[in-house]
Please model this.
Amino acid sequence: MNQPTRREFCTLFDSNYLFKALAMYDSLEQHCPSFHLTAFCFDEEAERLLGWLALPCLSTVSLRELETFDRELPATKDDRTRLEYCCTATPDLPLFMFASRPDLDEITYLDADLCFFADPEPLFAELGGDSVLMIPHRFPKHLRHHEVNGLFNVQFLTFRRDENGLACLQWWHDRCIEWCYFRLEETRFADQKYLDQWPQLFEGVHILRHKGGGLAPWNVSGYDVRVVGDTVMVDEDPLVFFHFHKVRVRRNGRYDWQAPGYPVSGRVRELIYEPYLEALDDAKRRVWAVDPLFSAGLSSAPNARARLREARANLGARIVRHAPALAQLRHRARRRTAGA
Model:
């Protein structure tokens, strides 16, 4: 009997994302038959806790090690916010993995707030002999004004150690070192909008077709999400992973689970969000078992101003969904702003 291919993943986070990263690791352990996750820890607390947890399929790399590997990276630090610096560093993770692991033929970067519902092997099978795997946002019509920020999401990116894969990865690294800010310019937005150019610049770039890879708050309203047997389906494809964008973990044990501006149905909450919140509960219990005082990433309940802002975002999303003409106006306004 053939042994399953061991899949190599890498991710980055600090202690504020530890609960989410642990939930993602657990989902991989449940659904991926053979894998290893390298966690690039952007603070010492995250590295310390992961050391105490001693997860069998995980190893850590410190920020100091990454900055030693790429001397250009820390040179950008004073000019960028913490979020912008994390985005600047993202292309360095696969480069570090290839440099430190000569045995690796491919590496997949993951955002730390993903959760897997099935084996990701169908996504790798679809990549076939190509060099780079990327996933589009797949905005439904009423949300396409968001495409101005990027047609693709960084969430899950596979690079092969071949001429095309390495060229694409190095180009992305160089662009992020030059400019990586959380603001929109005509062809740039953080580390994300650079991805728009890959299919034109490089051979062997594969855009994922499987609808179960890259389901997220911004596109789930465009699909028929249902259960067939024990499997959550996205139209005709099994759900492989969901991107839990902007889930906030409260100090009081509750969650602000809905991403502002992306209302989801009760069915999606039941089938997708509730299992994830249970996974976060389990992650908290495991962390607190080794460090009862750990509190990074826990937020207070939003104040009145924040609740009003989120309510406006959700109302705006509902209005444009049911009023296509208004959605088109938003699309045009976003394009004009980006081109200004």
